[in-house]
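// run 5 | inverse folding | seed 20
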């Protein structure tokens, strides 16, 4: 007995994946009753069915009282629901980089952060600076 060098882990013989594997067949009855289907290619992703978000939602926050929430897209559109106040967004701005996060301020308002470190403050959320200014 030696270590297993090549083993069928899909319904493709190992020598078709790795030509250094031998074409000799060995049977392991310990896995003879395996019922998992063969590997197949992943089905295509369904088309995006949300024209408003373009399926690019990157973050969500709750309202300060917890009776509402907002979601943010990478292109700067904020959608507010329930008691969440929409204090504006960056959807009409040409962004240098996509937005990647959203954080709420305790007294209302919120901040967006972009992948390049850019910060955008809205409502009562104070602006303290941005990493983009330091580049």
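// decoded
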């Amino acid at each position: 007995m030696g270590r297993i060098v090549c083993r069928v882990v899909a319904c493709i013989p190992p020598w078709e994946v790795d030509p250094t594997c031998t074409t000799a067949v060995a049977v392991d009855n310990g896995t003879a009753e395996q019922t998992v289907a063969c590997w197949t290619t992943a089905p295509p992703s369904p088309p995006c069915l949300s024209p408003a978000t373009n399926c690019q939602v990157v973050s969500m926050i709750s309202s300060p009282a917890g009776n509402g929430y907002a979601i943010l897209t990478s292109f700067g559109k904020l959608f507010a629901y329930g008691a969440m106040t929409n204090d504006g967004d960056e959807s009409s701005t040409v962004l240098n980089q996509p937005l990647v996060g959203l954080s709420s301020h305790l007294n209302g308002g919120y901040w967006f952060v972009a992948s390049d470190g850019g910060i955008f403050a809205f409502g009562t959320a104070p602006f303290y600076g941005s990493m983009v200014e330091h580049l």
